[in-house]
Design a protein that fits this description.
With 188 residues, this protein is mostly beta strands. The protein has no helices and 16 strands. The protein has three domains: 45 residues, SH3 type barrels, CATH 2.30.30; 61 residues, OB fold (Dihydrolipoamide Acetyltransferase, E2P) (Beta Barrel), CATH 2.40.50.140; 57 residues, OB fold (Dihydrolipoamide Acetyltransferase, E2P).
Length: 188
């Protein structure tokens, strides 16, 4: 049994008969009144995000988790199929369990968080950034460079990314998996 002082990003807790992962937290110690922890929790079962405030010293039920690397194989209409590279066992995840899943390409290595007690998958985390090839890009408008102008581009996974005007089809770009934003062009 942990307390609200042990809350940190990535911690999985049992709350309201569901398992939640802490996305954001802030320890607040006001000048008047008791301290508290303001959190943003994401349900690992349905992806719903809620805000919650825990008072200082509040007891929370921590869920023990393990992480393993899996290779993304393919997807179907319901979810995604992964393979453990150590024992070649396969795992299936629902689409709601993965954020920005449109940035995953076949063969990508993903970290899957499993509940330690019965090894049920809770969520999956993509790497910080991925390298993708631009397959289609809007033409850049000449003279539109006074500010950091962006245009639409579609990458090899089908995801839409806003990129600078100089990016053309065939270019490889680095994309952040956290928010799906363009980071840089990759030199080959």
């Amino acid at each position: 049994m942990a307390t609200s002082n042990d809350i940190r990003k990535g911690l999985c807790i049992e709350y309201s008969n569901d398992i939640y992962k802490v996305i954001e937290f802030l320890h607040v110690k006001p000048g008047k009144g008791p301290a508290f922890v303001r959190t943003k929790l994401k349900s690992v079962t349905n992806g719903k995000v809620i805000d919650n405030t825990f008072s200082a010293g509040h007891k929370i039920e921590e869920v023990k988790v393990i992480t393993r690397k899996y290779q993304y194989l393919y997807d179907d209409e319901n979810g995604f199929h992964f393979m453990n590279n150590d024992d070649f066992s396969q795992l299936y995840l629902n689409k709601e369990m993965i954020e920005n899943s449109n940035l995953m390409k076949a063969g990508e290595e993903v970290t899957i968080i499993l509940k330690e007690a019965d090894e049920t998958p809770l969520s999956a985390e993509l790497p910080q950034s991925v390298y993708l090839e631009v397959v289609e890009a809007d033409p850049g408008v000449k003279g539109n460079t006074a500010t950091n102008a962006l245009k639409n581009a579609i990458v090899e996974t089908g995801a839409r990314v806003m990129v600078p005007l100089f990016i053309e089809p065939g270019d490889k770009i680095k994309v952040s998996t956290e928010d799906g934003s363009y980071l840089e062009r990759v030199k080959e």
